[in-house]
Hints:
It comes from Chryseobacterium soli. The protein is of the alpha/beta class. It has 7 helices and 15 strands. It has a 5-stranded parallel β-sheet with strand order 2-1-3-4-5, with helices on both faces. Strands 10-9-8-12-11 form a 5-stranded antiparallel β-sheet. A 3-stranded antiparallel β-sheet has the order 13-14-15, with no helix packed on it.
Amino acid sequence: xxxxxxxxxxxxxxxxxxxxxEQIENVEVVKAFNxxxxxxxxxxxxxxxxxxLDIEMPGxxxxxxxxxxxxxxxxxxxxxxxxxxxxxxxxxxxxxxxKPIKKERLIQAFEKAQELVASSQxxxxxxxNTNIGKTVIFTEQIAYIKTSEIDSRDxxxxxxxxxxxxxxxxxxxxxxxxxxxxxxxxVNKKEIVALSSIKVFSTNEIITTIASGSENxxxxxxxxxxxxxxxxxxxx
Length: 236
């Protein structure tokens, strides 16, 4: 499922894009914005994987917006001006769709986006801004993830060797989409665990293989909203 957010300074263009998206299977418009600054303030908390950005906007154009979010979202540009094409593809975006937008052309762009989203979930690593700079983290090394106690927008990853790395400004939902779905599970509102780190689990609690103190292992409380999905993963 493609969950997309639209950014265009023209309300008529937003309405038209929404109408086209509603006619395309497996595409959902989560939210739409006509102000780049409001968009940037909120995009980190929205569950989406594709952003459709208009390039020509007053104040801040789509190219400038894309530079700030391209490491976390797949981007489709829309514009009436062909002279932006080279700059757009320098940003490694999914596609560049000329206005007036046709449904068939938009479908092609979404198909490309779907392939990229699927491949990013299979590639075996996460690339993100962290407390030590832009970092590549191999998912097979991740034992446990929790929301930072210092800043809830950040997420702390614990590797199997005990190394801790802080991912900057990333929601648990978006992080979970980057991880191989068969290998990780969210257990409550603040924590994700690698299934290979689970030693024992009951209906309310997980005991992991992760050391916590001199003789203890980390225990996680299972949230009510996550019990059924956890049970399904273990065939219960």
